[in-house]
Records
---
Amino acid sequence: MENNQLAAQFLLRKDICFLNFGSFGACPKPVFERYQQYQLELEQEPVQFITATGVAYLKNARMALADFLYCNADDLVYVANPSYAVNIVAKNLHLNAGDEILTTNLEYGACDRTWKYYCKKMGAHYVRQPIGLPLTTKAQFVEDFFKGYTNKTKMVFISHLTSSTGLRLPVEDICKRAKELGLLTFVDGAHAPAQVPLNLSTLQADIYTGACHKWMMTPKGSSFLYVNKAQQHWMDPLVISWGYESSSPSHSQFLDYHQTQGTRDFSPFLCIPKAIQFMEDNDWHRVSANCRKMVMDNAPRFTQLMGATPLAPLHEDFIAQLYSIPINSKDPVALYRHLFDHYKIEVPVMVHDDKVFIRYSIQAFNTQADLDRLYVALEEILRERKDLLG
Ligand SMILES: Cc1ncc(COP(=O)(O)O)c(C=O)c1O
């Protein structure tokens, strides 16, 4: 199917030029319909669904996700979002005073905040190692990153794809080096599943979290936490419930603890097999490759328009379906609102430390016309609204 045919598969408003798939994803119709079927089934017989049939569906969905991620289904639990997963890990790590978490200065704000909170509480340090931009090579990145390593470093925490800068980071090399140094590794892969190839067996991160409701296109609130078997024993749940001292324990305490979390609607997780099928039915490898090409083909004219230095070479090592352009804006919030209200373009304007970026995401439903519309809008704003962009 071509992009205009795939666009018809999505529920997104037709009057909006939607260039922000990255923030919250968007569900295709067949996946959303499956979601509503599960919710209906739940409401028709809540007891059976929550205690029996739904539990079986959940196991099935976990197995499908494990196949997709190339890992063991017993090493995966569902969480609502990556923030939740980061909180589980940070709370359980039992940091001592002086311990260090080594990370980059490119991480997602909510995760930074979680780590800062727990580090402050325990007298530990969250080391945001400055990464020189533009990125040059993977080897240089690894070298820059490990300059922050000391004998106090306890864990490496790093994004697979960064949020405001939209960069794909060489987490394979980082995990390998961290292992040689005897460090625990935790990869924040919020944007990775279905945007970049992901094989948790070969990556060998100790801990990995990813969102399914972004690039896998499941309903909101479906994410996962993967923990290597060797680390599962210290991973308590945030919510203690029936899985603790379970009256019918399964073969895995990790699953019991994390999957039994009180009454909740777990329909979003159940849609994972349908979302995987949707991608298979629509030749998603090709769709994704086309999207990456559109991202890269357009990147130079946007950086030129903004007079900006690209954040990384235009190469699959660093760029996938997100592209961030550094901009000068005195009022990023007003710029975002103006793009939406005046031009009906949904595109994030993101502030990271003291820098501002505009980030476009390209997904199956986007066409060249969307990026042309953004380009023309930015040209006009540059010309006429120096208070917003200049
Ligand atoms: C790098 C990164 N980590 C984590 C998240 C997860 O965010 P949340 O838990 O707020 O859904 C995001 C969301 O965009 C992200 O970009």
---
Amino acid sequence: MNREIVVTGGSAGIGYAIAAAFVREGDRVTVTGRRESVLTEAAALLGARAVSFDAGDPEAVEAACAQLPDRVDVLVNNAGGNTDFEREDGADLKALETAWLANLRANLFTAALVTAGLRDRLADQGRVVTIGSIAARTGAGSYGWSKAALELWNAEVAREFGPRGITANIVAPGLVVDTEFFHGKLTAERQETLIGNTMTKRAGRPEDIAEVVRFLASPEAGHVTGQVLHVNGGAYVSRG
Ligand SMILES: NC(=O)c1ccc[n+]([C@@H]2O[C@H](COP(=O)([O-])OP(=O)(O)OC[C@H]3O[C@@H](n4cnc5c(N)ncnc54)[C@H](OP(=O)(O)O)[C@@H]3O)[C@@H](O)[C@H]2O)c1
């Protein structure tokens, strides 16, 4: 379609599948991520541009903006993850504060900073799609809280950009396998439980999410904005 697409966290998992879907559409895609070698390899496989930076660090985002396209038709805020998988357990208040801030930075700040950095480059009729989580509705500690905050932030973005025909929506996955999300800590038992919670009796795949993002980014989805679209096989049923 010849659009300029930016996918944060496009070097692995869901973001990689999203980037691949846009490449297949004939768009020009820029993928981002922190690990430069992983990102460069992914970009080469995709046929995309690579810009490496930490999307949760304001100074890094500001510096990276110089390398991002001058006009952005579709911004996909996909970078994120549950930082609790990477931390040591600690019960003292300082450790809790550190853990909560880490999840806010990883999931809320990443989207808010990159969107703010690119706000004046978003094309009229453009699209902002942000990856939330089922955890925003079902819990999961500070990871869930950070994804819940993202839903309120998205509503504000949709309101601000709406008059320019720009939509902003959240896609909220349930369990998605073939990603690095769980850092090898998802037990077979837990996976069985999560699959058992679905109506489809299967785990999600990155492509399940990518296809919904592709629709929200399409010209046909121009009247869908400020929404949360759940892609979880029925594991959580949204009623508003
Ligand atoms: N997999 C699931 O079951 C699931 C379920 C619900 C929601 N989600 C959400 O889906 C999104 C994608 O996750 P995934 O499952 O595809 O995980 P993943 O395989 O770990 O991929 C995450 C991607 O984001 C990048 N990234 C993470 N933090 C970043 C940061 N601060 N700045 C720049 N890039 C960053 C990673 O690269 P670097 O590490 O090199 O930066 C990687 O490319 C996340 O927002 C996650 O919360 C996943």
---
Amino acid sequence: MTEQTRVLRDALDSLREPLFIVEDNKGCVFANSALFQFLGIKRPEDSVLDLSEFWPGVTVGSFRGEEIASEFKLKSGDAFAVKLSIQTIHEHTWIVRVLAGVSRSDALHNFHAHRLETLGMLAGGVAHDFNNVLAGILGHITYLKMILPARGTHTESLSAIEDGAKKASTLTQQILSFSKLEGGEKVEEVNVCELARGACKLLRGAISPEYSLECNLPQAPVCVLAVEGKLAQVIVNLVINARDAIGPEGFIRVSVATVDSEKELEAAFGTKELSSKSYARLTVTDNGHGMDEAVLEKIFEPYFSTKKDKGTGLGLAVVREIVQLFGGAILVESKVNVGTTISVYLPIVSAAAQQPRLSKGAPSKPELPRGSERILVIDDEYPVRNVLCVSLEHLGYEVDVAESGKEAIEKYQASQRYDLVLLDMIMPQLSGDQVFVELKKFDPTVRVLVISGFSSETAVRSILNSGGRGFIQKPFTIEELSKNVRSCLA
Ligand SMILES: Nc1ncnc2c1ncn2[C@@H]1O[C@H](COP(=O)(O)OP(=O)(O)OP(=O)(O)O)[C@@H](O)[C@H]1O
Ligand SMILES: [Mg+2]
């Protein structure tokens, strides 16, 4: 290669725009590095690329100076639509520039994100139904605890059932917040400890039982500003990578700590200015095969993977993107045959105490606020409807039930008015918010207490903004129910 050719080649390589040069008879004689990046394929030594490798069926002789829409197709089957500009630079030589198109890495990235999203939605759907079953079980337990003597042969069994149901309920809440249904894309204060605890519980199912997955999490909350679902994705990707790296004697440890050592933060952030004094450090450690220098250098590159067909190579690229989005940094330490430690640093926000939701159930018989008003319960799920009905009647109320929105509207219109309506959100045909609109049309003073598994649901917020009296999250205890009902009737 002459000096002049090298300079020209370097100049074309320095351009961000993917381009290649085509000669009649010879095909593609040069492609710049941006094109290889765009196609997501490795660049051969001589930068020469057979046109059929990415643009099958094209006839070089038909080129005119023009802009065209076309499609690149790789042997792997990946295809992407492109807009090209073709310029004649010689009688039989053309330069082809890619003006627009979705690169392979973008396409893969979208696929990865989409796959995670689908899994999240699926898990969320299952968790939602499961939550309703639990609401029934927990409700009946609190009811039984109230009507049975405080001490007896039944006490231990009842407590065991209650513990089990509460554990299942915490797990369900975790799955709900993993799925995009709860929380959505909202940036909020997230307690990393609690998130990691829940993630570990879920991930145990994805890891062979002979491996150990340890959690080392402080009781005190360590809060950061982030989108909960995205942070969960970080933990999942790191733990799954650790799982893939460990052997029969493997262990994985997930830990969270607060860090304010300048030295450590400098190692993670380099010269970047720090936005906080203290950082949350989420660490995933394994004693797997580790990584050598060559692998370490590339791990954050999109679609770099040593797992052949088993990995997309996007896990860590996604992790880095998420961590940077929330003002954080990542530190990787690894030794071949010893193991790997990956630490994620995120700026801490206030460490406001977060109460675990289900610790509220009082152990002894509580004094519950009672009443005698008429209440209409609308829920399509039998266990929820049933426990609401039994509990409310126990508290002295007169209760009527409806299994659907349609039945509820008919009952409401036919009756001599109810003092309160307990309204489920997610129902087939008429959803809770539609029922609310209909009831309001008929009776603008209608009092509604919304029941839902998702506190952040837009429909819930819209009802509360337009006159709904209150909200109660499933699963609920009889204490929560009685208090909320009273305050709505006040
Ligand atoms: N804990 C680890 N121990 C050893 N090697 C690791 C570890 N984490 C990541 N790697 C290396 O980094 C590479 C890139 O990881 P990344 O998560 O981006 O992709 P992947 O795991 O190969 O694919 P995917 O995440 O799509 O399943 C891995 O293929 C592996 O070689
Ligand atoms: Mg991975």
---
Amino acid sequence: MKKVSNPIEHDLWFLGRIKSMRQKALKRRKNLSTFQLERPISFWIKKDRLVNEIGKEFTIILRTKGCSWALGESGGCTMCGYIQDATIEDVDQDQIIKQFDYAFNNKIKDITDDEENYILKIFNSGSFFDDNEISDKIRMHIYEKVANIKNIKEFVIESRLKYINFEKLKELKENLKKKHIEIAIGLETVNDYIRNYYINKGMLFNDFKTVLNMCKENDIGVKSYLLLKPPFLNEQGAIDDCINSITNLINLKVNTISINPVNIQKGTLLEYLYLQKRYRPPWYYSLFKVLKKSVNQDDLKYVRIVSDPSGAGTKKGIHNCLKRECEVSAKKTLRNFVLSQDLTTLDQSEFECECKRQYPFEKLFH
Ligand code: SF4
Ligand SMILES: [Zn+2]
């Protein structure tokens, strides 16, 4: 895969700022006990959209040494603070296996007793296929545990492009033959300039397309994350960028598009801009507009579009005017759309807020 020369290298202020924010964030990490290293960061079950039906997600977030991109010279992506969840101490393979087993054993009876179908999402705030984070032994352990659970119908993991290769995909498919598998990739936008200059992602769209084809050859799906409103774009620019990305990804026949409206995470360049009042997270109205303009109901027979925004309805996440009824209603509208995949739900908000009149002016300036 072609090495992406970091296009912001010439902008020393920018790169220096990302790195110094990252260093400060890394220093704030706490020492963890052995007990804590054997527990996942978090795990839960909740209602979710499966490929063909409404079911439940079982999500496990494993604690590993962290994303190599954030730990390395680049300083990581401008909006991502996940590295603070990583360990300072070495976390060994057996501890990660114990983390997985803890979550799995805790919930497996609920899952097998349940009549509903499940999607299992295993995240590690980095790359599942990076051997420095998750070893072969851990991956095989997880595949073996999951393979025979009948009502886990779908399996999702995340990885940066550089760690995805034919052998790893083949091994995954061979072990989980009966499941619908998706690899989640943080593409963020189809625009190389925005992705590499504004998000500092270090990734090219062409490489994404190569990996997408490799996944298709292995009968594995791709879930693409899109970032709604990267830093340095105003609201209208963000809407245009996201519409352009969705349209392109639908044409490429990705399986799932997950729209992540920005939320402000600690220790990031984005937080710095936010504290300086140079950044406002996106409006719900923008997200709804993006969906209506980029997707038609026929598209949704082939692609699943989801969005489960962190920090929604608060100052640091996607929000409208912060009035309670307004935020609750917008959140519900989004949830209804995601679960039903029915675009008409976007016009069925319970509460029409007066902030909708102010929004067209706001979106031009922030
Ligand atoms: S967004 Fe993904 S690739 Fe970027 S720093 Fe965070 S975990 Fe790493
Ligand atoms: Zn409002």
